[in-house]
Every structure is written in structure tokens, then in C-alpha cells.
Design goal:
Blueprint lengths: L8 E7 L3 E8 L4 E8 H4 L10 E2 L6 E4 H17 L7 E8 L4 E5 L2 H6 L7 H4 L8 E3 L7 H11 L2 H8 L8 H11 L1 H5 L1 E6 H10 L7 H4 L5 E2 L4 E2 L1 H7 L3 H5 L8 E4 L2 H7 L6 E3 L2 E2 H8 L7 E5 L3 E7 L9 E4 L7 E7 L3 H11 L4 H10 L8 E5 L10 E5 L5 E2 L4 H22 L10 E4 L6 H11 L3 E3 L5 H16 L5 H4 L7 E4 L5 H31 L15
Parallel strand pairs: 1-6, 6-13, 6-14, 15-22, 22-23
Antiparallel strand pairs: 1-2, 2-3, 4-5, 5-8, 7-9, 10-11, 12-13, 15-16, 16-18, 17-18, 19-20, 20-21, 23-24
Helix pairs in contact: 5-7, 5-11, 7-11, 14-19, 15-17, 16-17, 16-18, 17-18, 17-21
The structure holds adenosine-5'-diphosphate and 5-O-phosphono-D-xylulose.
Length: about 550
């Protein structure tokens, strides 16, 4: 049934690595509109590949901040042309790729307050950023700053206890420390630092938006228990950093009404509320209505595995974030950098650049791939932190190539064995009744999901949209309006359609993959040792005190 012509709508956005997307839902939680802007294809003037620029050192990875602004201009124009009545939007929220940072130049807050209706945002804001290329989550160039932060905090484990993660190169605090040290002038000229999520919220607010607890947990700066910036981490990162960041807020906070620029230019209502934006993985948790016991596997640019956590469980691998929908609880996350782009590269080389042929190769090859196992860490991986492509035959001998169809199955099986291995190492296991909820671009591929189901030996479910981040943002917008009065997120979204079962494990899956997982673990150890040996050959470093040699980049 269509919604009444004046019935309220809720807008959810996602500013991710490769695109900016929007979903609009009505009060019955039905999707009434979807739009998107692909950075590479629709904003070619910024010359990005997969939404980013990889610098000559292969470690520094950035995106042009004005590309993101221009994408918002384009997206809103598209939505207007498609006939979306913005005046019905009661609340909006959004998400951004995690960890990325935006550096606002002195005076930018005044510019944001007085936006001229007749100009596009990207014209109005062209001088508003002290750093034009924002560091993003794929960056792994801040190894030194990670070591410094861990030393200041009293070791990696102590940092985990405070912030939920040991020091990671892509985490915002380490990127800020690097920028302060290497680009002092730009840093001096900075008035405010946003995450990608709070940056996007600032555009809608016409003023600086607060960072929410959940995305703030991906910075190595937030104390995830007190939900305040950690003094130790702030001091180790940059002077007066709390002023540059502003105070963090609960993820359900209403930050204020949409700015008059959006009211007059696009017809938003003056009372449309902007609810705090958060990270894309936390938003995805909301979009899939993940429950304790479920395991989410996101197959976007990055692959991530995440779960609902009642209490933080500190570990040197993976992350604990504040939960985006239940303020006193948490979520755990593992991130893998070599996800969709690696599958795409193998598709291009082995399956004629066609997902249909890629899927056919998966269907035509047997579970376990005749014992062949592959590691495809084409760029410096996060979990585990190694680089290199390695293929092994059934006798564990390293081989230089595999036939195209075997290579296709090797990349997908290898990735999912790794997701399962590292999730199990953190203590998470699939038990009868566990649902694996898949999302992200590659979750539209049934054959890939069949391999996921087989490797995890568990049923895989999806929601109707492969894009749970936008949907989660729209749900969060709706919840934000009533969260203050104590309404729970799950009560507000109880009418949402249940996830659908899309794959069940093959009867032989357990036998095949329990065995293969053991071999995968041993071979991964070999690959890590080999990579560490070649790194120490290049750099000859002293082993760090806490044994975290893995932190160092190639
Ligand atoms: N049919 C498909 N099979 C496998 N992967 C796909 C398919 N369609 C899209 N993808 C992958 O989805 C990725 C984009 O995922 P998405 O979640 O939209 O990215 P992000 O949100 O990180 O920008 C693409 O890089 C592409 O490799
Ligand atoms: O670094 C992480 C999570 O820690 C990534 O998951 C980013 O949040 C990017 O997300 P996608 O664009 O791949 O969805």
C-alpha cells in the first residue's frame, strides 16, 4: 500500500568509499525512494579509482573532500528531479566510511552558517578545508604514530582497554598525529576535525556536528567505557585536540534542525531534524536489526564481520565500538581491507570481467577447491597485517598460479576462511540457531553467499536491500525522534521485514571446511612469518616490546 501523500518520511544517507547513497522510508518502514552517486563514474574530474587516490608510497590513501561535497549536490538534485517531496522528511541521519577525517579551515563555521542559496555547496565550500585530501580508512601510513600512541598509553593492551582497539594506522587519532607532524601549517590552519560521518551531518546542520560515540570509537581517542575523550590519548596525539573535536554525543542524539540552505534550496521543512550520523558498520548493524547471537558479514569495499556485544572483550586483534542503537552496550568488529576490490580484480583476470562468469566458476568448482588455498593480500591487509599474494596446492606447496576457475573459488573461499578463522580466534563461534546476516554490494551475489554459508556452516540471510547502511540510517533517523522519551530501537523498527534465508550449508560443508580451516590457519602463519621476515630484512627493526611486530607496514 502506498503511503498517504503528506505522510512523514525519513531519509538515510551513506557516504562510503565508492559512492554516496540515499534511502527514504515512510512511517511503515517501506522504502519509497533510493538514489546514489558513484564517485569514479559520475565525478570523473576527481580522478579517483574506487573512490580514492593511492599515493606513490602505496600506504597513503586519501579522497578529495570536495568530491564528497559535490556528490551531495548531485545526489540532492537527482532526488529532486525524481520528484521526492523533501518537505515530508521529518528526520534524516546518515553514515560514513569509518575512520576518515575532514579538516575544516579557520572561518569554515561562519561559511557553513551563511550559505548562499543560489550556489552549489561545492562552490561555497571550496576554500573551507585546510586539507583538501582527506585520509581514509585504507591508509596505512601512520605506523610511527601508532607506536608512539601505544608507548604513551602504556602498551597495546592498555590502549585496547581504554579505546577498544590497539593502535591501527587507519584510526583517526593516528592520522591526526601524522598530519600535525608532517603538515604543521595546514594543521595550524584547522578550526575543526570531523569524521566522514560528522562532516556529512555538518553539511546538513549548517554548523559543526558532534561525533557520535559509535563512530568515535574508531579513532583510538575515545574511552569506550566513560564515552569521553581519553586524556592520555588526546595528549599523545595533539595539543588542545578536545577543542578541535568537540564533545562526543550519544548516537541517537538529535543535533538540531536542517539548515535554512536546505529548506530554501530543496524544500526541506524547517522542523526536519538531523540525527547524529555514525559509521557505516554501526549503521549497518541498525539496518539489519542485528541481535545478540547473530553474525553480520558486510561485503562492501572492505569486508567486515561484526557482532552485538553486551560487554567489551578486550583483544589485540579486532575492535570494540560503542553500540549505535543501545547506549550501554557494544559491538565487535573485524575489518579486512582486501574485500570487493580484490574479488573484482580476480573477476577481471579470470572471469572476463563478468559477475555472471565469476558466479558460474563458483558453481562449477567443488567445495574445498581440490585442496587449493589462496591468500590475496594485494594491498597491506588489516587482519592480519601482511601484504602479498600466495597460492598453495593440496600438499601445501606454494604455486605461482591456478587455473582461472580454481582461482575464482580460491579467492572467495580464502576470504571467508579468513573471516571465520579470525572471528573464532576472538572467541565467537557459530552455534545452532546462529544467523549469518550478509550485506554490502557483493551480498547480491547468490553464489558468493553459498560459499559463505558453506565455509561458516550456517544459514545465510539477507535483507531486501543490499545496502543496509542507508536503511539503518533511515531507521536511526526515525528512532532519534523518540529515543529521548525512552523508546527502544527495536520497538521502533519492529514492523520492518524479517531477513530472508538465501543459502543453507551443503551437507558436506562441515567436514570439508573444518579440515580446510586448520590448514588455512597453518598456512596463514607461514605467510605472516614470511612477510615479517621480509619486512625485518628491509627495515631491520628492534622487535616492539609487546611483540606487535605485526603493526609495522611494508
Ligand atoms: N553481483 C556482484 N557480485 C559480486 N560483487 C558485487 C556484485 N555487485 C557489486 N559487487 C561489489 O560491491 C562493491 C561495492 O559494494 P558497496 O557495499 O556498495 O560499497 P561501499 O559501500 O564500500 O562503497 C563493488 O566494489 C563490487 O565489487
Ligand atoms: O575501516 C573500516 C571499518 O573499520 C571499513 O569498513 C570502512 O568503514 C569502510 O567501509 P566500506 O566503504 O567498505 O563499507
Amino acid at each position: 500500500m502506498a503511503s498517504a501523500p503528506r505522510a512523514p518520511l525519513y531519509l538515510g544517507l551513506d557516504l562510503s568509499t565508492q559512492q554516496l547513497k540515499a534511502v527514504v522510508i515512510d512511517g511503515e518502514l517501506r522504502v519509497v525512494h533510493q538514489s546514489g552517486v558513484q564517485f569514479d563514474a559520475e565525478l570523473p574530474e576527481f580522478r579517483t579509482q574506487g573512490g580514492v587516490h593511492i599515493h606513490a608510497d602505496r600506504l597513503t590513501v586519501t579522497s578529495p573532500v570536495l568530491m564528497w561535497v559535490k556528490a551531495l549536490d548531485l545526489l540532492l538534485d537527482k532526488m529532486k528531479r525524481a520528484g521526492l517531496d523533501f518537505s515530508r522528511v521529518r528526520a534524516l541521519s546518515g553514515s560514513g566510511q569509518q575512520h576518515g577525517s575532514v579538516f575544516w579551515r579557520r572561518g569554515a563555521s561562519e561559511t557553513l552558517k551563511h550559505l548562499d542559496l543560489d550556489q552549489d555547496l561545492h562552490q561555497l565550500l571550496q576554500d573551507s578545508f585546510s586539507v583538501s585530501d582527506s585520509p581514509v580508512w585504507m591508509d596505512s601510513s601512520s605506523t610511527q604514530q601508532c607506536e608512539d600512541l601505544q608507548a604513551a598509553a602504556g602498551g597495546a593492551l592498555r590502549l585496547v582497554e581504554i579505546t577498544g582497539s590497539r593502535a591501527y594506522e587507519r584510526f583517526t587519532g593516528n592520522q591526526i598525529a601524522k598530519l600535525r607532524q608532517t603538515r604543521a601549517e595546514e594543521f595550524q590552519d584547522t578550526e575543526r576535525i570531523s569524521l566522514v560521518s560528522s562532516f556529512a551531518a555538518s553539511l546538513f546542520l549548517g554548523g559543526y556536528a558532534a561525533i557520535d560515540y559509535s563512530d568515535g570509537s574508531g579513532m583510538n581517542l575515545l574511552d569506550i567505557r566513560t564515552r569521553n575523550w581519553s586524556e592520555i590519548c588526546l595528549q599523545a596525539t595533539a595539543p588542545h585536540l578536545d577543542q578541535l573535536l568537540g564533545a562526543p554525543v550519544p548516537s541517537t542524539s538529535v543535533l538540531g534542525p536542517v539548515s535554512s540552505y536546505f529548506v530554501h534550496r530543496y524544500g526541506f521543512s524547517e522542523s526536519c531534524s538531523v540525527v547524529a550520523f555514525t559509521g557505516d558498520n554501526p549503521a549497518s548493524l541498525a539496518g539489519m536489526r542485528l541481535q545478540p547471537g547473530d553474525v553480520a558479514v558486510s561485503l562492501g569495499t572492505s569486508d567486515t564481520v561484526f557482532l552485538w556485544l553486551q560487554q567489551p572483550r578486550p583483544a589485540l586483534e579486532g575492535h570494540v565500538f560503542c553500540n549505535p542503537v543501545e547506549q550501554q552496550e557494544y559491538m565487535a568488529l573485524l575489518c579486512f581491507k582486501n574485500g570487493s576490490l580484490t574479488r573484482e580484480r580476480v573477476r577481471n583476470e579470470c572471469a572476463g570481467a563478468s559477475w555472471e562468469l565469476f558466479s558460474a566458476a563458483l558453481s562449477d568448482t567443488p567445495l574445498g577447491n581440490h585442496g587449493n588455498i589462496g591468500f590475496y593480500f594485494e594491498t597491506m591487509e588489516i587482519t592480519p597485517p601482511v601484504i602479498g599474494v600466495h597460492r598453495f596446492d593440496s600438499a601445501d606447496c606454494e604455486v605461482s598460479s591456478l587455473s582461472p576457475r580454481v582461482e575464482v573459488r580460491a579467492v572467495v573461499e580464502g576470504q571467508f576462511l579468513s573471516r571465520r578463522l579470525h572471528a573464532e580466534r576472538l572467541g565467537y563461534s557459530i552455534i545452532p540457531g546462529t544467523r549469518v546476516l550478509a550485506t554490502g554490494g557483493a551480498s547480491s551475489n547468490k553464489e558468493i553467499l553459498q560459499v559463505l554459508s558453506d565455509v561458516f556452516n550456517a544459514p545465510v540471510y539477507t535483507i531486501d536491500l543490499s545496502d543496509s547502511t542507508c536503511l539503518g540510517s533511515a531507521y536511526r533517523a526515525l528512532h532519534g525522534l523518540v529515543a529521548e522519551s525512552g523508546a527502544s530501537f527495536f520497538d521502533v523498527v519492529k514492523k520492518a521485514p524479517e531477513p530472508r534465508l538465501v543459502a543453507t550449508p551443503h551437507p558436506k560443508a562441515k567436514e570439508v571446511y573444518d579440515e580446510l580451516l586448520k590448514r588455512y590457519a597453518q598456512l596463514e602463519e607461514r605467510v605472516v612469518q614470511k612477510s615479517n621476515r621480509s619486512q625485518s630484512h628491509h627495515r631491520n627493526p628492534q622487535p616492539p616490546e609487546d611483540g606487535l611486530l605485526a603493526l609495522t607496514s611494508a
